[in-house]
Design goal:
- The structure holds 3 protein chains of 3 kinds.
- In chain A, the strands form 3 sheets. Chain A has a 7-stranded mixed β-sheet with strand order 1-7-6-5-4-2-3, with helices on both faces. A 4-stranded antiparallel β-sheet of chain A has the order 10-11-13-12. A two-stranded antiparallel sheet of chain A has the order 8-9.
- Chain A contains 15 helices and 13 strands.
- Chain A is an alpha/beta fold.
- Chain B has a single domain, classed as RNA polymerase II/Efflux pump adaptor protein, barrel-sandwich hybrid domain (OB fold (Dihydrolipoamide Acetyltransferase, E2P), Beta Barrel), CATH 2.40.50.
- Chain B is 22% helix and 33% strand.
- Chain B is built from 4 helices and 9 strands; from the N terminus they run βββαβββββααβα.
- Chain B has a 6-stranded antiparallel β-sheet with strand order 1-2-3-9-8-5. Chain B has a 3-stranded antiparallel β-sheet with strand order 4-6-7.
- Chain C has 2 domains: 110 residues, Aspartate Aminotransferase, domain 1, CATH 3.90.1150.10; 258 residues, Type I PLP-dependent aspartate aminotransferase-like (Major domain) (Aspartate Aminotransferase, domain 2, 3-Layer(aba) Sandwich), CATH 3.40.640.10.
- In chain C, a hairpin with an 8-residue loop joins β11 and β12.
- In chain C, α3 runs antiparallel to α11 and α6 crosses α7.
- Classes of the chains: A alpha/beta, B alpha+beta, C alpha/beta.
- At the B-C interface, β4 of B face loops of C.
């Protein structure tokens, strides 16, 4: 498909601008002015609309395809939240308004959304307070680690150097810890897929600043000894960090705060059904227990004695500004609306059906694919294409087969602890019929791998492109139409 | 798997060819094959000082980044600029045109920490034996 | 009833039977009784209509009525309907990160076009596929300069957004980075003081154009001085202004960042917004965030993929260039649609309109007794005035007359309580501006 730039014709324009109604035409000194106009494409409105409509048709999406991408929680995104985010009272609200003296009175509705969302998340996760500011899960992680560092500094814990992560951890965990200046100790999982307690004890020293993990972990398993792990980490005044990537599995069944976690980041685009947007915008609120509350970023949204909501910047121990404003407000609003519609029962049903759906797929597929951990799973089930590899068929080949069936592939090659990993997360919003179709396609792929493994190398066949040359992309580095 | 008899090797699959106190360093056939299509070589600066077995540079393939360690201590006196333009040379000619850096050696005794061609060949064979294949559990 | 769950009681029965469990509770055996929630005290769910009614009522508790003259880096530009309509397609907004290029060419090509548009605007050679927002993008640019130079001192011009400045402070507490901030002189970068601050320990000089006070500058000379010290130069820019203004590439800047809200995104009470970053091709390995590259498929057809992933967290883990794994793909797509609609000539016209209208208000305000308009340097669509009274008092009185008069500089700067920052976009009419002047005259009693 042509690029916009290749469709450009001099003189076309897709927006009509107002004529100037002022008797002024400024001519800036030449040194302040660019030599040539920015070479943006020149297109009519229809050309632009058709181009981007056609581009959209080259995407798989939750609206059109089953999307069982493990660890990403690609659940359905309700339509009504889109409508709410577009309300003028929110969309046209300038973020600096509440920073005027007494300006909070101009933004009471928006501040209420943030305040109430924080209260819901506190109750859902068992935390004392939240900041809604982090703009993605990884941003929340970085914020959480900064809170951990601030805590240790305030307590005079100058010897803290290490953060423990399980070997199955998402790559952002070590990356976030490193950005905040900590080194990583990776602890292996035992045969059941959970962190090996003996090996944890072996590396536990007073120099451990904390431990970061998802729960259930990235093997799709809930660690029954999680509270014992918390006790061990707390015994060296370490901080328990909860990566909320997998919260969907335990909504209403367990709360990170009750399990001993001190700091939590959530991904609103996972658990709370806000759209993934092709890779963002996300939203990664961070919750803390009482001991970390003084360090939360500013501003904080507070309710004054007179019931008025206001921004509070007056926290001497705060880690400061971590973003320009109060978070990805449009996303927070969608998540809040979703929580209101689900309520207490709806949230519990979410976990129940997410876990039921995953176990159903686990049982349907375990005769056909190697199961990583043969036990009850939580919201996702983990396979390996090792049997298929004996015939030369890799996990990525299975993925490409599914694309031809109009199914978005599961996550492949993650977690790194399982070779040829295929991680399937169906989510609660999918029907039994959809799961059956997916299982049938997966079984067909497994059978084809036995019968005719060669054919996989030519898949997918039905897409506009097939098997892009990623080596060429990385060697030649063409990332700009103009250069 | 090609191995050059007169070179010395590390267990991390680097080779060094020492002539007149200058060590030419590269990666072995085994390494280039394990890395797959190399897309980028992050060359060190000339004059960089390295210790034996310390990280010298890194190479990237599409989905991995790997550290390359120095077989000897010394100062980098030359880097192979051709690799910056065409990293595929490392895949195609890892023992000659695909050399990476030349290092002025400071301690000849360090060669005793390296493997001879025979030792490296045996080491590769032992890796093969230990490779348990692709089973998931254990 | 839960509209987002398809499983009926009969489905549940069949599925449990297949799994070999008696009840859903059996699937949660790993959660011990002692680990049950101590509380889960939440209200019952509402119907869709009830939620819509409740949240619509909340939206009315916000004040969006007053005519906006407030900017501070975030502007009330018009968003064309085609922009919102296209971005509302579920194929865009309910997709995820393009990990499987065969079924994500839509997002990938849009991001490639975004990168190319950012290069077209800034004149730079390469751009990434977006970052969270302008402030955190500036932090990422600063860390990129620290990595590239191996130095830890940052010289920052006083014209850089004070909001961004606070972000840089928070992230660098434990990283031993030294900041030297040089206040502006007569609205522009203070050459003499900046040169004095630059030395061979300086990793980066950070500049902003137009700066926070709205002033335009040509930084070519000071950039040359910074380069002579071996420092890199980061320029934070306002994309709409680049319809007219000298590009950072023409000034020879090394890294360019900015806030892309003005490119077709609503104000949204602070987000989601759009950070962008562009640089020289030789620095691309240190550029953080996702990057989309062109390649061909097995049959030689042009296509697009995430590239240079070996820099990223999911491969390098603790050695990654940044912990970022999210861009704001949807906002970047929205901005790309906007830039494709407005086009080459349109952006220039838009910039000229903003400039002319702001100049009109400026000249009218300077006729008001007691209002001192700063005229030492040219401005773009925002400018600073000094009032005879506390700016917050004036803003409050103006609000009562139906105007969001501007932003009080005293909020971020000591000793500037009487200063007001006023923004004018293409949406403001002559009549609105005349009425603004009239109201201000009344408020000031002149």
């Amino acid at each position: 498909m042509k690029l916009t730039f290749e469709q450009s014709a001099a003189g076309r324009q897709g927006v009509k601008l107002p004529a100037s109604d002022v008797p002024v035409k400024v001519v800036l000194a030449a040194k302040y002015v660019r030599a040539n106009a920015a070479p943006l494409p020149e297109m009519s409105e229809l050309d632009v609309v058709r181009h981007f409509t056609r581009l959209s048709q080259r995407n798989f999406s939750v609206d059109a395809n089953f999307y069982p991408l493990g660890s990403c929680t690609m659940k359905y995104n309700p339509k009504f939240t889109e409508k709410l985010a577009g309300l003028s009272g929110f969309a046209d609200l300038h973020p600096l308004l509440p920073q005027l003296r007494g300006g909070e009175k101009y933004a009471q509705g928006a501040l209420e959304v943030i305040y109430e969302c924080e209260r819901w998340l506190c109750e859902i996760t068992g935390m004392k307070a939240y900041t809604m500011q982090p703009l993605a899960g990884a941003h929340g992680e970085l914020t959480g680690i900064m809170l951990m560092a601030a805590y240790h500094k305030a307590k005079g814990n100058t010897n803290k150097k290490f953060i423990i992560v399980p070997d199955s951890a998402h790559g952002t965990n070590p990356a976030s810890a490193a950005v905040a200046g900590y080194s990583i100790i990776s602890v292996p999982s035992d045969k059941r897929g959970v962190m090996d307690l003996a090996k944890l004890k072996a590396v536990l020293t007073p120099e451990v600043a904390g431990l970061m993990m998802t729960c259930p972990d990235t093997h799709g398993v809930f660690n029954p000894q999680i509270d014992e792990i918390s006790r061990l980490i707390h015994s060296v005044d370490g901080i328990m960090y909860y990566d909320g990537a997998n919260l969907n599995a335990i909504l209403g069944r367990a709360r990170p705060g009750d399990l001993g976690f001190d700091v939590v980041h959530l991904n609103l685009h996972k658990t709370f059904a806000t759209p993934h947007g092709g890779g963002g915008p996300g939203s990664g609120p961070v919750g803390v227990t009482e001991k970390l509350e003084p360090f939360l970023p500013i501003s904080r949204v507070v309710k004054r004695a007179d019931g008025v909501l206001a921004l509070d910047y007056n926290h001497a121990d705060s880690i400061g500004y971590i973003a320009s404003f109060y978070g990805a407000f449009g996303i927070i609003l969608r998540a809040y609306a979703y929580m209101l519609i689900l309520g207490r029962e709806g949230l519990k049903q979410t976990a129940d059906h997410a876990v039921l759906n995953a176990n159903y797929l686990l049982h349907k597929l375990k005769g056909h694919y190697q199961v990583a951990f043969d036990r009850v799973c939580m919201h996702e089930c983990l396979f390996s294409a090792s049997k298929q590899l004996e015939r030369g068929v890799h996990a990525i080949d299975i993925a490409k087969f599914l694309i031809d069936r109009n199914i978005h592939p599961p996550t492949v090659y993650f977690p790194l602890t399982v070779k040829e990993a295929i991680m399937v997360e169906p989510t609660e919003t999918e029907s039994r019929e959809t799961l059956d179709e997916f299982a049938a396609a997966m079984i067909e792929a497994a059978e084809l791998a036995q019968k005719d493994p060669e054919v996989f190398h030519f898949l997918p066949r039905t897409m506009p492109i097939s098997r892009p040359d990623e080596t060429k992309a990385a060697r030649e580095v063409k990332v700009n139409f103009f250069a | 798997m090609e191995i050059i008899e007169r070179f010395l090797y590390t267990k991390e699959h680097e080779w060094v060819n020492i002539e007149d106190n200058i060590g030419t360093v590269g990666i072995t056939e085994y390494a280039q094959s394990a890395l797959g299509d190399i897309t980028y070589v992050e060359l060190p600066g000339v004059d960089k000082e390295v210790e034996q077995f310390e990280q010298l540079l890194s190479v990237e393939s599409v989905k991995s980044a790997s550290d390359i360690f120095s077989p000897i201590s010394g100062r980098v006196i030359e880097v192979n600029e051709d690799l910056a333009d065409d990293p595929s040379i490392l895949n195609r000619y890892c023992y000659d045109k695909g050399w990476i850096v030349k290092i002025e050696m400071v301690d000849e005794d360090e060669t005793s920490n390296l493997l001879t061609a025979d030792e490296y060949r045996n080491y590769l064979a032992s890796l093969d034996r230990n490779d348990t294949g692709d089973s998931v559990e254990d | 009833m839960n509209p987002y769950i398809a499983n009926t009681p009969e489905d549940v029965r069949l599925m449990l039977e297949a799994v070999g469990a008696r009840a859903i509770d059996d699937l949660f055996v790993d959660i011990q009784p002692r680990q049950s929630p101590r509380s889960f005290d939440l209200p019952a769910g509402l119907s869709e209509y009830e939620v819509v009614r409740h949240i619509s009522a909340l939206s009315l508790k916000n004040m969006v009525g007053p005519v906006p003259f407030m900017g501070g880096g975030y502007y009330d530009h018009y968003v064309p309907a085609a922009c919102s309509a296209l971005i509302s397609r579920g194929e865009f907004y309910t997709a995820y990160t393009p990990y499987q290029p065969e079924c994500a060419q839509g997002t990938l090509q849009a991001l490639y076009e975004f990168q190319s548009c950012i290069c077209a605007l800034t004149g730079m050679e390469v751009a990434n596929a977006s970052l969270y927002e302008g402030g955190t993008a500036l932090y990422e640019a600063m860390m990129m300069a620290v990595r590239l130079t191996g130095r830890k001192k940052i010289v920052i011009d006083g014209g850089v957004s004070p909001i961004y400045r606070k972000i840089l402070d928070s992230y660098t507490h434990s990283l031993h980075i030294v900041f030297v901030e040089v206040p502006v002189a007569h609205g522009q970068a203070d050459r003499a003081a900046l040169v004095q601050a630059l030395d061979d320990q300086t990793a980066a000089l950070i500049l902003q154009n137009p700066n926070f006070f709205g002033t335009i500058d040509d930084h070519t000379d000071i950039i040359e001085k910074a380069h002579a010290c071996g420092a890199l130069v980061i320029e934070s820019v306002y994309p709409v202004s680049l319809g007219l203004l000298k590009t950072p590439a023409e000034m020879n800047a090394d890294i360019v960042t900015g806030e892309g809200q003005s490119l077709g995104l609503a104000l949204n009470f602070g987000g989601p917004y759009l950070g962008f970053m562009a640089t020289r091709k030789k620095f691309i390995r240190q550029l953080p965030g996702r990057i989309v590259g062109e390649t061909v498929d097995a049959q030689g057809r042009r296509c697009f993929v995430n590239t240079l992933q070996a820099r990223e967290q999911h491969i390098r883990r603790e050695k990654a260039t940044s912990n970022i794994c999210t861009n704001v793909a949807l906002c970047a797509t929205q901005a790309t649609i906007f830039m494709s609609l407005i086009g080459r000539q349109g952006l220039r016209q838009l910039a000229q309109l903003n400039l002319d209208k702001a100049e009109f208000l400026k000249s009218r305000l300077s006729a008001l007794k007691g209002v001192e308009v700063k005229r030492s340097a040219p401005t773009f669509n925002e400018f600073t005035v000094r009032l005879p009274r506390n700016a917050n008092d004036v803003i409050e009185a103006m609000m009562a007359r139906g105007f969001a008069a501007g932003f009080p500089l005293g909020r971020y700067y000591k000793g500037m309580d009487d200063y007001l920052l006023i923004a004018v976009t293409e949406k403001r009419t002559r009549d609105e501006m005349l009425a603004y002047c009239q109201a201000l005259a009344e408020v000031l009693g002149v």
